[in-house]
Hints:
Blueprint (H helix, E strand, L loop, with lengths): L1 H10 L3 H10 L1 H6 L14 H24 L9 E10 L7 H18 L9 H11 L8 H25 L6 H16 L17 E4 L9 E12 L5 E7 L9 H12 L5 E3 L9 E2 L2 E4 L10 H13 L3 H11 L9 H38 L1
Parallel strand pairs: 1-5, 5-7
Antiparallel strand pairs: 1-3, 2-3, 3-4, 6-7
Amino acid sequence: MVGLLLLKQLENLSDEAVVVQWKRNPYYQFFCGMTAFQRELPCHSTELVHFRKRIGKDGFEKIFQMSVSLHGESALEDSVHIDTTVHEKNITYPTDSKLAIKIINRLNKLAKAHGFQQRRTYVREVKSLRLSIRHFRHAKRRAKAKKALKRLRTIARILIRELRRELPQHCLFDYYQQDFLLYEQVLNQQPKDKNKIYSLHEPQVYCIAKGKDHKAYIYEYGSKASIASTATSNVIVGVVSHEKNLHDSHTLPEILAHVKTSRGKAAKQGVCDRGYRGRSSVNGTQIILPKKALKKDTRYQKDKKRKQCRRRAAIEPIIGHLKSDFRLAKNYLKGAVGDHINLLMAATAWNLNKWLMAIFWLFFSWRKVQVFK
């Protein structure tokens, strides 16, 4: 099962695809420890979901630590590069009208499931209101769109009140109370509110602005992820998914603690970009940022700091490969635990791929020497 999860991340496959490919590919089977070719599926794809839940975050931490230990001394460098990125969640672009319509559909489905005779379902009216909201950005139709949004929220509140009257008769009120509180919070939130809810099935998701000149107004919805790699060998030795949208400088204690846990040795230096301004040291680790040289620095010290900060840019393509090759671009796993698991497995796949490539080139160079002899 662990081999299937590793192959899924290495080959950027879904649960369904990796099970089918395992049946077809003898190399996949050999990777998972099979000694003879198997003609049947190893398991149903849903069993991977149950396996992830069973071992949890702690189990994936052990898998990640194994991938770090494969690199031996290369993973124990004193200096690490640290950067953050956005770990996007698989949710639709959030709008108030979408959330209101989803709430109405959920309430109607709940009433139908328990056999309640509703006074009105509002299905036809919701369909016409959805059409009115399409032109929300049009100057002449904005008032009509706002009126439609207000009506959608009113309909959702009517259905909530009706179900609250009916549910206590069937002893279901306590079971659905948490959902109703979530729906009311979504319906009451305003555009400028903090801690908004952007998804009903992923309420922990928060909004992160890129803050870059070429993408100043592009927002991403998910969680912030910190990644730490060694300065020379580019082995990922620490990853953390943050459940709150923290400033980069406030993420340093957590990521440095994970570096120490995953490899058994604390980092002496952490090289970061200017987004980490405000910290010079964290728990004994010196934080190096790009800035003007001090007057007391010698020429050697100035050149050393300049090279360290230039070398820090090596973590940027690592993050790019994690997103494009190892399933970090979009997270399909449920909840905050799913964020941690997907991030750990993506980093594990990077380390394992790097280790396999090193073995390949070692074998290739040995064969080349044998041929010339």
